[in-house]
Amino acid sequence: MTFKLPELPYAYDALNPYMSAETLQYHHDKHHQAYVDNGNKLIVGSGLEGKSIEEICVAAFNGKNAGLVNNVGQHYNHIHFWNWMKPNGGGRKLPGNIERLVEDYGGFDKVRADFLNAGATQFGSGWAWLAIRDGRLEVTKTPNGENPLMHGSLPILGVDVWEHSYYIDYRNARPKYLEAWFDNLVNWDYVSSMAG
Ligand code: MN3
To answer: From the CA of 75, how far away is ligand 1's center (Å)?
Structure first.
């Protein structure tokens, strides 16, 4: 497959004041584009050309192909990251399938606290996640371009904690970024669609 940079699903300034147009321009146009370009180079001759992006994530991780793990992993992560956000997102009103997973986990406040803590404690670059394993919600974190697919669960929400995602707007205050992101930007309908 040939990887392609998707359009942002909203205007660059749509997520103000929680994520600036400048952040989105660099993050989408430069960083995500670089993962797409590197992925297209690295997939050639890997034997994985005909696979889906989800299959490539898993096969690259199991085959210890670090270049593909990070670049195709990041492509997958960012395709969804743009959609995990929307203007006027966040809030405590959850779609039914997500509400059930959250209640089973221990409630909204526990999910929020564990997710923010996972993001704050991921050392260096990476992601914090809500994922589904064996029908139940789990909160995880992964380094660099890895994602829950590579660890046997289904990602339904992920937040990018690479500095390129928050440094322009929040400088070193990663916990502040995580709170603003979770409370004001999360597109729960997209989370719901990923949970099936
Ligand atoms: Mn990123």
So the answer is: 9
